[in-house]
């Protein structure tokens, strides 16, 4: 499951201060904020701009340039689907279409019930068992649309049983 600390300006200010001494401090600050809060909260933008003497547009530009920075909170579970060559050759695109339809989200989005975030990834090191999907920390190989549905259902069932 994903960590999801609620936004706190005090905490964000402390995280930013802890990375102030680093060279090219904006990227380490962004990574640290995402680690803390699960995303780059809109309210972090002016704090970063002020700290680094940048414009808000400059900070926005960096956040949107790098795909690894999220603008919204992640779902309780992250689904990473491989889009690299071996998986593509085993119809990863068909699987991705199925997942998008089933969850009603695109990449970098979170389902309406907050259960799943969908992210692309380029090789999970499981090429021999393509197409590959990772749900939280668990790697799955030879994932068909039906198998994906079973994995998603069992992830939710495990969560409900806790
Ligand atoms: S190409 Fe998909 S796991 Fe390597």
Summary?
The protein is an alpha+beta fold and 162 residues long. Helices cover 46% and strands 12% of the residues.
Please provide a written account of the structure.
This protein is of the alpha+beta class and 162 residues long. The protein contains 7 helices and 5 strands, in the order ααααβααββββα. Strand 4 (133-135) and strand 5 (138-140) form a beta hairpin. Helix 1 (9-18) packs across helix 2 (26-37), helix 1 packs parallel to helix 3 (44-52) and helix 3 packs across helix 4 (56-65). The longest helix has 17 residues, at 145-161. The radius of gyration is 18 Å and the shape is elongated. The model has no long low-confidence stretch (mean pLDDT 94). It binds FE2/S2 (inorganic) cluster. Residues 82, 84-87, 123-124, 126-127, 130, 132 line the site of FE2/S2 (inorganic) cluster.
Helix content: 40-55%
Q: Give the biggest beta sheet.
A: 5 strands, mixed
The backbone outline, from C-alpha atoms, is: elongated
SSE order, as H and E? HHHHEHHEEEEH
Average pLDDT figure: 94
Name the hetero compounds present.
FE2/S2 (inorganic) cluster
Tally of separate helices: 7
Percent of residues in beta strands?
5-15%
Total beta strand runs? 5
* Rg of Cα set: 18 Å
- How far do the termini sit from each other? 12 Å
Question: For the largest beta sheet, what order do the strands appear in spatially?
Answer: 2-3-1-4-5
Structural class: alpha+beta
């Amino acid at each position: 499951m994903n960590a999801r600390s609620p936004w706190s300006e005090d905490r964000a200010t402390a995280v930013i201060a802890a990375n102030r001494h680093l060279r090219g401090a904006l990227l380490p600050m962004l990574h640290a904020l995402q680690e803390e809060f699960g995303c780059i909260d809109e309210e972090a933008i002016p704090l970063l701009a002020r700290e680094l003497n940048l414009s808000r547009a400059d900070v926005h530009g960096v956040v949107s340039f790098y795909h690894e920075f999220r603008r919204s909170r992640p779902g309780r579970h992250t689904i990473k689907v491989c889009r690299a060559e071996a998986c593509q050759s085993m119809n990863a695109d068909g699987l991705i279409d199925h997942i998008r339809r089933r969850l009603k989200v695109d990449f970098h989005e979170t389902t309406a019930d907050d259960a799943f975030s969908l992210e692309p990834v380029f090789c999970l090191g499981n090429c021999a068992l393509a197409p590959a999907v990772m749900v939280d920390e668990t790697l799955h190989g030879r994932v068909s649309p039906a198998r994906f549905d079973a994995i998603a259902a069992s992830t939710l069932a495990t969560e409900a049983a806790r």
